Amino acid sequence: MTTSFQRINDLIPNKVDLGLIEIFERSVDYNTLRSDIRKNLKKYNDLNIVPGKMVLIITRKSYDQIITIYSFLELGVIGVIYSPDELQLLILNGGYKPFDYILKDRDYVLPGILNSLTISETDHELLKISNKVQDHKDIIWGFFTSGSTGMRKLIGINENNLNSRIESEKRLFKLTNSSRCLNFLNFSHELGFYNLLAGISAGSSLFVRNILSAQHFYNTLYDLRISMFIGVPKLWSMLLDSELILNIKNLKSLELCTISGGSLSFELESHIFENLAENCELIKTYGQTETSRSLVNKVKSMEDLKYLGKKLEGVSLKISSSGELIHSGMGVMAGLYSFKEKIFKKVKEVNTGDVFKQNDDGTFLMIDRVDRIIKSNDVRISLTEIESLLMSSMLLEEACCIFNKEILAFIVMKNEEEKDCFNLWLKLNTPKYIDLKKIYFLNNLPVNSAGKISYEKLRML
């Protein structure tokens, strides 16, 4: 497999009036970035990491991740970034099998050296990488899905997926060489990956940070004069809980922010919209790891917050007879890896797993997940509706429901001493058709690496 163009020349602009990249305390200009990437290319060639190989990248170091991403795109090597903390889980579930190499902090690691993992000798034997034949075709990069509903899937994108998403991000977020973008999202997830490449492609200044608290996030936005960031649910919830959301109107440099990566309550979205500075645009987006962004909503009023927006130009969407949204056409991933057959299978459309309805004006309203709509006493009901009912008691910090032959509710109290009060409220306010008999009180709800509630872990409790 050979690259069809000089990726670094295309993805990293070569101009003098570009921004800078600041990873924590380290600052580099675009020329330095380009030079560091070139130094790595020979190293990877020496390791026989050549076009068509598939490599698992294990590192927490953000700059190493950036260098490796661009080096592999230049070489035509298929890379997948993964957290060191999750490597053992990946191994024990067989997710390592597609990979020809494992890189740890830019050094090739023999599988047998991973002794720091507390795994059995049998599992060490399983780590041996065979000389298998894989059908990569036009795949140039890979992502694991978050796995919130089960085993993670490995998806692959091609050159067209990459280029169209980068150009779409640049247009949507109005990225230029004067933009100052904050990236606190892991590059192993598609939101962080594309935000990185789009920002650099536009010549923007890019600031990479770990967000430690709501106050740290607010100070970062203020001190660095950030003009754009992608806001995920966990971050917005932190701001609401700390009441710092009331102060975001003071961020005069902020021109655009998003609600991305998951749904928020209407109450929280309303707080966000009401407290942004007048010159700041709020955009709601919807999409899957397996696709590009499907829906975009440029919020102009409180009424707009009810919807996820209209479909992007070129995207094909349809709603099945069961109400599930199906994405086809532009933006669909190039392939889904079959762990059984050890190949990437072509994908023409993606079942999103989300139930939607479309309004006459073309806007889309999300109802719930397909697997979260159940029948209770012959009445079809959404588990999200039940969660909203529980949260309306004003006594809970969090609530989550799953269905396993019966409805199971997992809740986190604001005050442990108010359990009896909550149980009385529940008895007086639960409709008869909701058969809610099992409630589990937890200190917190389990989450996965993407910060989303892990339904799989809840089922194991």
Folded structure, characterized:
With 461 residues, the protein is an alpha/beta fold. The protein has 3 domains: 7-15 and 26-97 and 99-133, Rossmann fold (3-Layer(aba) Sandwich), CATH 3.40.50; 159-327 and 350-370, Rossmann fold; 377-460, GMP Synthetase, Chain A, domain 3 (2-Layer Sandwich). It contains 13 helices and 26 strands. Strand 24 (396-403) and strand 25 (407-413) form a beta hairpin. Helix 2 (30-46) crosses helix 3 (62-75) and helix 6 packs across helix 7. Mean pLDDT is 82; it is low at 1-5 and 109-133.
Radius of gyration: 23 Å
By DSSP, the count of extended strands is 26
What is the CATH class designation of the largest domain?
Alpha Beta
- Order of strands across the biggest sheet? 2-1-10-9-11-12-13-14-15
- Broad structural category: alpha/beta
Q: Which segments are poorly predicted (pLDDT under 50) over 5 or more consecutive residues?
A: 1-5, 109-133
Q: Can you say what the CATH homologous superfamily of the largest domain is?
A: ANL, N-terminal domain
How many distinct helices? Answer: 13
CATH topology of the largest domain: Rossmann fold
User: What's the architecture of the largest domain in CATH terms?
Assistant: 3-Layer(aba) Sandwich
How confident is the prediction overall: mean pLDDT?
82
**Gap from first CA to last CA:** 47 Å
- Give the domain tally: 3
What would the principal axes of the Cα set say about the shape? globular
The major β-sheet equals:
9 strands, mixed
Q: What oligomeric state best describes the polypeptide chains here?
A: single chain
Helix proportion: 25-40%
